[in-house]
Amino acid sequence: MKISKKDALKWFEFFSVLPEDEQISPMQEEIVYSVFAQIEAAVDNRNNMLMSKIKGLKTLDNRTFYVGNENKFPAGCRSCLTGTGLSAVRKTNKCNLECKFCYNYGELDNISPVGEGMWEIGGTKFYDKDIDLLLSIQQKPTGISYVYLEPFMEIEKYYHVIEKFHNANIHQHLYTNGTLATEQNLKALGRAGLDEIRFNLGASNCSDKVIKNIATAKKYIKSVGIETPMTPEFYEVFFAKKQAILDTKLDFINCAELHLNENNISNYYGEPMYITRHGYISPVWSRELTLKFMKTADEENWDFAVHDCSNYTKFARDLNLSAKENKWFGSSNYACEFSAVPYEVFLPILRDDNFKFLIEEELPNEYKPEMMNY
Predict the structure, then answer these.
(1) pTM for this prediction
(2) What domains lie within the chain, and their CATH numbers?
(3) With contact defined as beta carbons under 8 Å apart, do 88 and 175 qualify?
(4) 357-to-38, 140, 260 alpha-carbon distances in Å
């Protein structure tokens, strides 16, 4: 059913004040899903119109979108979207910054350590000495990524492991906010065999120091780029410092659609939200800004790849990973990151007079707020 925006608001105002432990009925659940579909359809329509204005828009096997130099599209993303996966390698449980968009916001002091001398790979704990055993038994992935949380907090521990995976011919990339990078440790990463490094430039608000570190990284590491959740703050500061950033000769920019969880969503209350395929909840403006960003990159012929790492891309990623793991048809780990639907976060977009549903129909009597026995 194509619920009207007026009825959607009435229902969600009701749902938002229900006790947390009160279950809604199947008929009420139909209302919820109808509202989600109406919001998502309107958001998709707006995004499709923005995409239609990007003349040089390209796809990677219809799994994601990008503009720019195809040869500089990050190999780590190719591994994630078309290869045998992107195994996360975890070591560091600390960070020197606290970003409002961080998925661990508010709990950075309570992250469990991986363990002394240990690495977490595929959810299993390994000592350095165990990695040779792992490589001799299991099929090698096309790529791995070093995440969780800021590797440069103890980057000297990474060199030996990077060298092991380099010798095994596995593509490796590493995420960092870049504030603790130096010429010395970037050079050591390149010498160890790191293939790709991604700077979360938004974490430092596009600091001059990190921009300089991006240029330094290009001297020692083959593929250097930026991967940052697309927010209004990042968009504004990037263009204020655009020329300095482009002068680093970076290879790619991954514009990540910001999706929220129970840790960071309170930092964005009041923003217009939508939910993709009953999974990730995101501010509407995140992907819109990405597409505007890509349009500028295309029109100005930036000589690198700019990637739309959207919720759609993450949906495709999880389908690819499940296929490579020989899971059942349709299997995916893509899902909502909330234990219960946070109805209240959708009220701002339902109250926004400028946000219109594409098609509205009158609800059947049994679904009308004033008629239904709830």
Answers:
(1) 0.96
(2) 5-346 (3.20.20.70)
(3) no
(4) 6, 47, 23
